[in-house]
Amino acid sequence: MKQCWRWFGPEDPIKLIDLQQVGVEGIVTALHDVPPGEVWTNKSILERKSVLSTAGYDWDVVESLPVSEAIKTQTGQMQNHLAAYKTSLRALAAQDIKTVCYNFMPILDWTRTELRAQQPHGGAAMLFDLIDFAVFDLHILERSAGVDDYSVAVSSAAYVRFCGMSDSAKTLLKKNITAGLPGANDSWSVEDVRLLLETYSGITPQRLRANLVDFLSEVAPVAQELGVRMCCHPDDPPFSLLGLPRVMSTSDDYGAVLDAVDLPANGATLCTGSLGVAQSFDGPAFVQRHGPRIHFAHLRNTKRIIGSLPDMPDFFEAAHLEGDTDMIGTVHALMAEQKRRCAEGRVDWQIPMRPDHGQELLSDLGGDSTPGYPLIGRMRGLAELRGVMASYSYMQNSSYAKSNID
Ligand code: DNO
User: Fold this and answer.
1) Inter-residue contact 136 to 171 (CB < 8 Å)
2) Measured between alpha carbons, how far is 50 from 59 in angstroms, rounded to an integer?
């Protein structure tokens, strides 16, 4: 797989040129300053491309070309936003940038309650705790329908925790949860979040899925013609929060959406960290089922916390080879998929991957990296994943392995 790295653009505290030392082969980035629904111009794409090429890199994957809320809810400026989306795809394809990731999560992108939870080894990791989340939902946001979404045990524990929380702890919790909102650097007020939630009243999961299929029916044929591979990122975490619908949480969700618009351009981003929070997730089986349509892989591991609820588990972001996901099996399955594509003569045989997220380790601690995206933690993740890939190739190709290793 092509060993890529997410870089947030010139504002990223990690310098592109340093990534050569990390062994990074390709870059995943986006024009984060362009609001969803607006066109990515040729000029801005070219500018970013030339910054990358000065450091010796191609722009391998766009993550993300965001889908606006108007498209997700089919309201307001939807038609203009769809037109802008297609224009941006054409501009990207004209620069030979052909892999485009997006997600269809309402309002929230990823959600965690702690961004830097101390780990026994001294580093820090992102974490989701349902009771903290319920404190935010029931007592900070005061969402009235929230009471129906939690068991009595969770609601009571949330009440007790809220009563014992200092004002600064409440502010930090709000900040951590809203870090996954669009434009996360702005400060979101509780009122802003309430207004956003209202835009989804009456949108059931069935309706949201239909809206996703409508979006793909419009856009995937254009992508197909341009040779662009679109790849939908799963819900993170893979269950409903704040009463919002979620429709890309399981392998079956992917099956339904990939079948509904049956074009190679309508593909998947396999994010093992997001999907892997669900107990039912089976990484190698996901690759076996959807392999030809996986255009991008986010390799990350999570560990469910023992004793938490099976359907809405607490979890933390584990080291890449240490969580609940069978990472080695998943990487092997992806490598086998590449081999299959080569045999088929597919030009896009190589799957771009990136070490998704990383724990904060050593000199990452106390630094200013984007939550989940520290240098050393991701470098450790990439090094471990590279080892798995290298040993797979070795076992496949070396004559020594063939004759001496069972
Ligand atoms: C979290 C990421 C997500 C993902 C987008 C894709 O760190 O995996 O933000 O990039 O949801 O659209």
Assistant:
1) no
2) 9
Report how far ligand 1's centroid is from the alpha carbon of 83 (Å): 23
Cα–Cα distances in angstroms (integers) from residue 165 to residues 162, 173, 177, 247, in the given order: 5, 10, 16, 34
| Average pLDDT along the chain | 95
d(CA 273, CA 325): 8
Q: Is residue 235 lining ligand 1, measured as CB closer than 6 Å?
A: no
pLDDT of residue 214: 98
CA dihedral sign of residues 76, 77, 83, 89: negative
Type of residue at 137 = D
- The amino acid that residue 231 corresponds to is C
75's CB contacts (< 8 A; 6+ apart) are: 199
Is this model's pTM higher than 0.90 or not? yes
Which residue's CA lies nearest to atom 4 of ligand 1? 233
Per-residue tokens: 145: 């329908």
Q: What is the DSSP letter of 146?
A: G
Nearest one of 11, 226, 201, 230 to 102, comparing CA atoms: 230
Domains and CATH numbers, the chain: 2-107+197-404 (3.20.20.150)
Task: Determine the distance separating the centroid of ligand 1 and the alpha carbon of 356, expressed in angstroms.
Answer: 9
CA 302–ligand 1 middle distance (angstroms): 15
* Ligand 1 pocket test, candidate residues 72, 101, 109, 115, most atoms within 8 A of CB: 109
Secondary-structure breakdown of the chain: helix, strand, coil percentages, each rounded to the nearest 5: 45, 15, 40
From the CB of 64, is ligand 1 less than 6 Å away? yes
Residues 187-204 pLDDT 10s: 678 888 899 999 999 999
The response to whether residue 233 sits with its C-beta less than 6 Å from ligand 1 reads yes
Q: Is the Cβ atom of 298 under 6 angstroms away from ligand 1?
A: yes
Quickly tell me which residue has 């819900």 as its tokens: 235
Choose among 244, 142, 139: nearest CA to 196. Answer: 244
